[in-house]
User: What shape does this take?
Amino acid sequence: MEMNRRNICIIAHVDHGKTTLVDYLLRQAGTFQEHQSLQDRVMDSMDLERERGITILAKNTSIHVGDTKINVVDTPGHADFGGEVERILGMVDGAILLIDAAEGPLPQTRFVLQKALAQGHKVILVVNKVDRPECRGTGRIQEVVNMAFDLFIELGASEEQANFPIVYACSRQGWCTMDEADIDPILEGKKKADLKPLFDLILEQIPPPRVKLDGDFQMLVSNLSYSDYVGRLAIGRVSSGVVRKGTRIFRQGIKPDGQPLKEGFSVSELFTYEGLKQVPIDQLEAGEIGIVAGLETFEI
Ligand code: GDP
Assistant: This one.
């Protein structure tokens, strides 16, 4: 069953522009009003969470494009979280590798990229900050693309993965282009551009979640959080079936002695991501990334 949904993550070294890119993706998808800055919105959503007593650690975001929902799962940029990286990458079907055009790929993103490639994810390369003076007329951008290619090969990318689509972006101005020759005309104001090429690439190149809507409900818990009102929260991607509020389901795990564990509980609350917020919903279906409450002993 194909869903109108894409689950992706953005792999980026800190400061290469992930927040700025997500901000403009949200704005241009019309999820938010133009005049608010991302900072305001992040604050807004944190206040809202505080009001509801929900604090969710992973800053997942969702963006609606037409009738498709793109979930952007937050990824730690560095290698300190071995198991966490694999779990997070298990929630997505593809990734954006965002690289500062002046700095090039930095070693800290290698680990996450390697894990993404090993999971078979298709990766879109976004060369960001193409407006930086170091990149103009210096051949630097092509150099960075070549470095990225070498890195993919070194990390064991398949032929298809190494043949990655590329966009050249100036996130801070909210645009990107697939044609390197367009960078100067856009920067000089002779051509107009926005982030549509990246939206299109995500929709075309990243596959929708492959899931079974009609199977039994199954969700792989990838992260945990806590709410003062509803208690412990399990965050993850639903791999099959549908769950509704009030339904009785089981947590399956492993006991300390290695025996299988099966613990029944009723779903008290369900949430999904809308923009930067977590919103309550009545049902959560296969392919979606969401949050389940109702058990105090959730574990990853
Ligand atoms: P993050 O740490 O990856 O989330 O990076 P931010 O989005 O916070 O951006 C880091 C810095 O780079 C900020 O000062 C941004 O304004 C700046 N920045 C982001 N995108 C661009 C760009 O396209 N061009 C330039 N010149 N600066 C950018």
Observations:
- The CA atoms of residues 36 and 273 lie 19 Å apart.
- Helices lie at 18-28, 38-52, 82-90, 110-118, 140-154, 159-162, 183-187, 196-205.
- The chain has a mean pLDDT of 87.
- The chain has eight helices and 17 strands.
